[in-house]
């Protein structure tokens, strides 16, 4: 009986260590997929930065997009300018972001947001956002826009290298200066 039990354990161990288990948890949430596809269609992307964003393909597999493994909500979005190219990615409107209600981290580096004037209002509508980094994004004066916004969920904010930004973290009054312009 002991030999049989040991044999079964060895067999089970062999099966478990040599078998790949695939758990299908679905694809990106439909409304979030549509929001990101909307961005891809509307964006001025001369350097083809979003080339991995293939419409119809699961957005959780796109470069810069991270989804929660269980819920399949988009939780991280990172969009970077390729420094080897000479043309920036330009996003004129951030309304699509409101569909990413579970977004925790948003990072854009050297993305031209100069025409996205309502970015503070849109960011304010993201209840799960903890980390916001809009580095060198051509942002403009924001102090008056922040008077009626609650960014209490934010733990980190980086608005550095925005030369047109006519504001300081002390005027914002919700984060220490080193968190804002590091």
From TrEMBL:
Gene3D superfamilies given in the database record? Ribonuclease Inhibitor
Q: Where is the signal peptide?
A: 1-19
Broad class of the protein's primary localization: membrane
Note the topology in the membrane: Single-pass type I membrane protein
Question: Which positions fall inside the Leucine-rich repeat-containing N-terminal plant-type domain?
Answer: 31-68
SUPFAM superfamilies for the chain: L domain-like
Key words, A-Z: Glycoprotein, Leucine-rich repeat, Membrane, Repeat, Signal, Transmembrane, Transmembrane helix
Name of protein: Leucine-rich repeat-containing N-terminal plant-type domain-containing protein
**Which species expresses this protein natively?**
Solanum tuberosum (Potato)
> What does the organism's lineage look like at the top?
Eukaryota, Viridiplantae, Streptophyta, Embryophyta, Tracheophyta
């Amino acid at each position: 009986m002991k030999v049989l039990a040991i044999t079964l354990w060895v067999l089970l161990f062999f099966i478990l260590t040599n078998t790949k288990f695939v758990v299908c948890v679905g694809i990106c949430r439909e409304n979030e997929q549509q929001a990101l596809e909307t961005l891809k269609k509307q964006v001025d992307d001369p350097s083809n930065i979003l080339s991995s964003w293939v419409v119809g393909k699961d957005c959780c597999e796109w470069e810069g997009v991270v989804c929660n493994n269980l819920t399949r909500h988009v939780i991280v979005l990172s969009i970077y300018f390729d420094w080897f190219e000479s043309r920036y990615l330009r996003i004129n409107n951030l309304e699509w972001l409101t569909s990413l209600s579970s977004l925790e981290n948003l990072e854009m580096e050297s993305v031209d947001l100069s025409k996205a004037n309502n970015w503070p209002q849109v960011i304010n509508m993201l209840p799960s956002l903890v980390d916001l980094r809009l580095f060198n994004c051509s942002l403009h004066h924001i102090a008056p826009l922040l008077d009626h916004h609650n960014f209490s969920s934010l733990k980190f904010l980086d608005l550095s290298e925005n030369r047109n930004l006519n504001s300081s973290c002390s005027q914002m009054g919700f984060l220490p200066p080193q968190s804002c312009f590091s």
